[in-house]
C-alpha cells in the first residue's frame, strides 16, 4: 500500500484516522466475539441437558412401546399409531443476540388427551403414546438449542476471521503507510533544512564579500 499512497501530510492525517477506526473496530469485534463465546458455552450446557433429557425419555418410551406390543399385540399398536392425526405446532421467533439473528422456539404444552379413542386400548399402549409425546417435546428442545448453538458458533468464526483480518492485514498495512509517509516527509524536511543552510551560508558569504569590497573601496578613497 505504501507505494500507492501519496506521501503528504493530508494523507498522513487520513492514515492516522483510518488506523484509529480500524483499531476501534477490532476492539469492538473482539468484545462481541467474547460475549458470543460466553453465550455459546452457556448454551452448550443447555444443549447437553436437552440431549440427556431426550436420551432418558426415549429409553422410557421404547420400554413402554415394547411392553405395549407384548400385551396389546404389535398389530394393534401399529394400527393405532397410523390412526393418530394429532398436530404438534411450534412457535418460532427471531431474536437479535449481539447482532446475530437466532431462532427462539416456544415449545407448546402437550395435550393430555390421546389422539385416539381409549376404548378397547390397553393401558400400556396409552402409556407408550404419552411417553412418545414426551420424546417429541424433547426433540424440539434439542432442535431449538442446537440450532441456536450452531448460529452462534458460525458467527464466532466469522467474527474471529474479521478480527484476524484487521489485526494481521489491515492495521499493519496502515501502519506501514504511516511509516512510509513519515519517512518521506522527514527526508523532505532534512533536504529542505540542508538547502536552507546552504542558501544562508551563501548569503552570509556574499554579504561578507560585499562588506570586504566596500571596506577596500573606502580605504582607497582615503
TrEMBL record:
<comment type="function">
    <text>Produces ATP from ADP in the presence of a proton gradient across the membrane.</text>
</comment>
<protein>
    <recommendedName>
        <fullName>V-type ATP synthase subunit D</fullName>
    </recommendedName>
</protein>
<keyword id="KW-0406">Ion transport</keyword>
<dbReference type="InterPro" id="IPR002699">
    <property type="entry name" value="V_ATPase_D"/>
</dbReference>
<dbReference type="Pfam" id="PF01813">
    <property type="entry name" value="ATP-synt_D"/>
</dbReference>
<comment type="similarity">
    <text>Belongs to the V-ATPase D subunit family.</text>
</comment>
<keyword id="KW-0813">Transport</keyword>
<keyword id="KW-0375">Hydrogen ion transport</keyword>
<keyword id="KW-0066">ATP synthesis</keyword>
Amino acid at each position: 500500500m505504501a507505494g500507492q499512497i501519496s506521501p503528504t501530510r493530508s494523507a498522513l492525517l487520513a492514515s492516522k484516522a483510518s488506523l484509529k477506526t480500524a483499531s476501534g473496530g477490532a476492539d469492538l469485534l473482539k468484545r462481541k466475539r467474547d460475549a458470543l463465546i460466553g453465550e455459546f458455552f452457556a448454551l452448550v450446557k443447555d444443549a447437553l441437558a436437552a440431549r440427556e433429557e431426550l436420551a432418558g425419555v426415549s429409553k422410557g418410551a421404547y420400554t413402554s412401546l415394547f411392553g405395549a406390543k407384548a400385551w396389546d399385540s404389535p398389530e394393534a399398536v401399529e394400527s393405532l399409531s397410523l390412526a393418530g392425526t394429532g398436530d404438534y405446532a411450534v412457535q418460532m421467533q427471531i431474536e437479535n443476540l449481539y447482532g446475530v439473528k437466532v431462532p427462539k422456539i416456544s415449545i407448546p404444552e402437550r395435550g393430555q388427551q390421546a389422539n385416539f379413542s381409549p376404548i378397547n386400548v390397553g393401558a400400556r399402549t396409552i402409556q407408550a403414546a404419552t411417553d412418545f409425546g414426551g420424546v417429541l417435546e424433547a426433540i424440539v428442545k434439542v432442535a431449538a438449542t442446537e440450532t441456536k448453538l450452531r448460529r452462534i458458533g458460525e458467527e464466532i468464526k466469522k467474527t474471529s476471521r474479521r478480527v484476524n483480518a484487521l489485526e494481521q492485514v489491515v492495521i499493519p498495512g496502515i501502519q506501514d503507510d504511516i511509516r512510509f509517509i513519515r519517512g518521506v516527509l522527514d527526508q523532505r524536511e532534512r533536504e529542505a533544512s540542508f538547502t536552507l543552510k546552504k542558501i544562508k551560508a551563501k548569503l552570509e558569504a556574499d554579504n561578507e564579500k560585499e562588506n570586504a569590497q566596500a571596506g577596500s573601496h573606502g580605504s582607497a578613497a582615503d
